[in-house]
Sequence to fold (291 residues):
Amino acid sequence: MSRLKIATFNINGIRARLPALLAWLARESPDIACLQELKAAQSEFPIDEIRAAGYGAIWHGQKSWNGVAILAKGAEPLEVRRALPGFEADSHSRYLEAAVHGVLVACLYLPNGNPQPGPKFDYKLVWFEHFIKHAASLFETGHPVVLAGDYNVVPTDEDIYNPRSWLKDALLQPESRDAYQRLLAQGWTDALRAQYPDERIYTFWDYFRQHWQKNSGLRIDHLLLSKALSPTLMDAGVDRWVRGEPHASDHAPTWIMLEQGVAEKATRKKAPAKQATPKKVTSKKATPSKP
Fold:
């Protein structure tokens, strides 16, 4: 059976970190890569370099801020939507959804929400509610779906080196954590936590106070699997070496390995009838961290 490697990576500026991105793609060779924080206008996305690396791509850019992309090795992702249903008026480029390699992939960059309380935190919660509603509709289809991205939520105190230092941060607020748990309650599997149920795994280390050097990290990059995909999870991890490179993003790529043949079998059992191709909606290994 074939294997499918899906990764999510907050690149924190694709133009500044393009060499790092290309080096990671060449070394780790994910089949699907979801990128966040492109910080580049639509016309500035380096599609020629991405294609030269062997990847097709769709992207939703925004000058200076936000921005998401889905890359597919040896294929062109089929775009499904680039805005949350009911929230198409959102001016931020934070969501992209595509069918690729037999899986429906959602790439998201959930709002940070700081400072809180305030309008930015209110926006985070509103965005989260729209996403929860849409995720429920995706889950109910029974199709193989992955929700991948920077959620800007630390799910529990076991997902951060020291919660006391972040008590006022939007990433740890009860409302943020409650929204994440309500999302999981729909039936989604938190892949990294499922693979490492009792270990501290970090995906983000900020640039201050030598947090990378001291391994003072947070787990805020998540890949959630639908019911059809959960049994196919073979492995998961964080490519920590990327964070240790010069001029690195403050995130490290987070990935899962799926047994693709099992996913296809589960999908056929769920929907024996011929499945329609999703319509494009136009709007506008890593070693676990030590405690």
Confidence is low (pLDDT under 50) at residues 271-291.
